[in-house]
Design brief:
It is built from 17 helices and 27 strands. It is of the alpha/beta class and 505 residues long. Strands 4-3-2-1-5-8-10 form a seven-stranded parallel sheet, covered by helices on one side. It has a five-stranded mixed sheet with strand order 11-17-22-26-27. The chain starts with 16 loop residues before the first helix and ends in a 15-residue tail after the last helix. The chain binds ligand 0RQ. Ligand 0RQ binds next to helix 8 and strand 17.
Length: 505
């Protein structure tokens, strides 16, 4: 243990998870480490739930994290949550949120730190953070993610550390913790390239604020491996063709600007697409570094990857973490207010690739709300990246749910990314390049290139009726959500007379 707890005073602080759980009181706000099930505490959340269940007294806490975290926080603690922020992607939690049982603040991931530091949200009583080690001079070394951990540690009255022996010490040094100064004292953030380091490798904490240390030995919850399917492979090909055309047109050089990509099936397929592409010397400035990134590094395609978390499948996790020496010179992990920082995203000129649930004919994108009202996951980092990108790209399959839902609709039932921010839309049908187009031209481009053929005529009918009414962004307001109401009533967005031609899945 002494190679992980590097000051002898720390040994007196070792406690059981049961004892540490007894310090969490009803009504408290807890800031957990963790970002996409990487680097979150493993034992304490379970111990907190067990204690609350056993005592049977009213017990609700506010749960802050980096982003989505593992089920041992979001499923296990769901019934004990009052407020949850800034992102989740958990089935149990989703149900509770949509029933109004949990107050969920769906937040741009870059903004939680500022919200906390300006006292716009309840302050953190206790930070519960996973650590690789605590140094002699009082720095907590994070594990596989940085998230909001440094902000929670900074703000918390007390800190409980889960020292995870399952996380290899070779991770030490991969983090770059830069503490953004408070408003009023802020200057330009001195980060001008993807591979630059401007911070420290650990998070400072005074020993007397460490209330306890729980020793654990549990690996991260692996991410389910999502193999690319026929459609996501076509989407990836369209995207790569688009980038090649940009190079041919002289708008991009062969050495692409840094790339960002969200999580999920399409995002993974896109990055696998780069494996077979002519592009090399790639740089990533992203939130999550998924399996595909390490394959790209192995193939010599990636020069450097900056992320906020290592989000890996079981097989890849074992391989990457056991051989981390091989990757550490090519990787840096940053807190999310740096990985998603608008100033840096704009400065580096990122090409961003995120996934839409639905896109309307003018290019407004809904990433979060199913049928306009039910929360899916949250906006995550997609807003941070999209608004500030050099080229913002959204990808989606043109239909969902066996063809009964068109992802291209007359009017997005909820808008996360307005048409001002969305530049390129890609489905398996093709690419709509919206840059330099007015709303009416954007509509033509999206309907022609991105809509599924089964829905294309329906969209044109709507658009032509809207044109009769005129306007800058023409609409038939009373019919704008008729596709969504039709789906709610009949189980498909297809109009009755063309239902017979239901698209194949
Ligand atoms: O449903 O799971 O029941 O099969 O939505 O859709 O096509 O598998 O795509 O996994 O990439 O998720 C936008 C949710 C897409 C995600 C979203 C149904 C579809 C399927 C999932 P099933 P796919 P993905 C970095 C960036 C916001 C946050 C973000 C997301 C399920 O990408 O949460 O970008 N993004 N963060 O059938 C109803 C529609 C639908 C639909 C698809 N129009 N209506 N259901 N589905 N379109 C990450 C972080 O910030 C941490």
């Amino acid at each position: 243990l002494s190679n992980r707890l590097r000051h002898k005073a720390l040994f007196n602080k070792i406690v059981t998870s049961k004892e540490a759980a007894s310090w969490i009181q009803n009504g408290m706000t807890i800031g957990f480490s963790g970002f996409t099930s990487s680097g979150d505490p493993k034992q304490l959340p379970i111990a907190i739930a067990e204690r609350a269940h056993k005592e049977g007294k009213p017990f609700k806490i506010n749960v802050y994290t980096g982003a989505s975290v593992s089920p041992h926080i979001d499923s296990v603690l769901a019934e004990y949550m009052n407020l949850r922020l800034p992102f989740q992607s958990n089935d149990t939690l989703r149900k509770e949120i949509n029933q109004g049982h949990i107050r969920y603040i769906d937040q741009h991931l870059s903004e939680t730190g500022d919200a906390l530091n300006t006292h716009a949200i309840p302050q953190v009583d206790i930070a519960v953070v996973e650590a690789l080690a605590i140094t002699e001079d009082g720095n907590i070394i994070p594990t596989t993610s940085c998230g909001n951990t440094h902000n929670y540690i900074k703000n918390a009255k007390e800190v409980i550390v889960e020292l995870n022996l399952a996380q290899p010490l070779s991770l030490e040094g991969v983090h770059d913790i830069y503490d953004i100064p408070a408003f009023g004292r802020r200057q330009a953030i001195p980060l001008t390239s993807v591979d630059q380091r401007i911070g420290c490798t650990g998070i400072p904490v005074e020993f007397d604020r460490i209330k306890g240390i729980v020793v654990t030995n549990v690996p991260d919850t692996p991410k389910k491996l999502i193999e690319p399917d026929k459609e996501t492979i076509i989407i990836a090909d369209h995207l790569l063709n688009f980038l090649q055309e940009e190079v041919k047109a002289g708008r991009l050089s062969k050495k692409l600007p840094p790339l960002q990509s969200g999580v999920g099936s399409v995002a993974n397929a896109v990055f696998y697409g780069f494996l077979r592409s002519e592009f090399s010397d790639l740089q990533l400035y992203s939130e999550v570094l998924q399996d595909s990134v390490f394959d790209l590094i192995d193939e010599g395609k990636v020069r450097f990857a900056s992320g906020g978390a290592l989000t890996l499948s079981e097989a890849k996790m074992n391989r990457v973490l056991q051989n981390f020496e091989k990757y550490r010179e090519k990787i840096v992990l940053r807190p999310q207010d740096m990985s998603n920082n608008p100033e840096i995203i704009r400065r580096l000129g990122l090409i961003t690739i995120n996934t839409a649930l639905e896109v309307d004919i003018y290019g407004n994108v809904n990433s979060t709300h199913v049928m306009g009202s039910k929360m899916m996951n949250g906006i995550g980092g997609s807003g941070d990246f999209t608004r500030n990108a050099r080229i913002s790209i959204f990808v989606t399959k043109s239909t969902a749910k066996n063809g009964c839902i068109s992802s291209i609709v007359p009017f997005a039932s909820h808008i996360d990314h307005t048409a001002h921010d969305t530049m390129v839309i890609i489905t398996e049908q093709g690419v709509a390049d919206l840059r330099g187009l007015s709303p009416r031209e954007r509509a033509e481009e999206i309907m022609k290139n991105c809509a599924h053929p089964s829905y294309r005529n329906q969209l044109y009918d709507y658009f032509h009726e809207a044109l009769q009414r005129g306007g800058y962004t023409p609409h038939v307001i009373e019919k704008a959500f008729s596709w969504h109401t039709r789906f709610a009533e009949s189980g498909t967005m297809l109009e009755p007379m063309i239902k017979a031609e239901k698209p194949k899945a």
